[in-house]
Amino acid sequence: MAKPAGKCASCGADLTTFKYKPMPEWNMQGPICGSCYSRKLTEHYIAPDRREVTKK
Ligand SMILES: [Zn+2]
What we know:
The chain is mostly helical. It has one domain. The protein has 2 helices and 2 strands. The chain has helices at 34-45, 48-55, and strands at 6-7, 14-15. The chain has a two-stranded antiparallel sheet with strand order 1-2. Strand 1 and strand 2 form a beta hairpin. The longest helix is centred in the last third of the chain and has 12 residues, at 34-45. The chain is elongated. The chain binds zinc ion (ZN).
């Protein structure tokens, strides 16, 4: 069994193969999982009007 690399600093999921280093401006204390990373990227780098377009 793979040794867990830690917990996601955002959602608490176990980090195994995939973990991501958060951007300093996200105020995260450690690595985060892929789903939190992509969600954060979306929140921080896609403009609000653009986000409305991509929702559907
Ligand atoms: Zn997470």
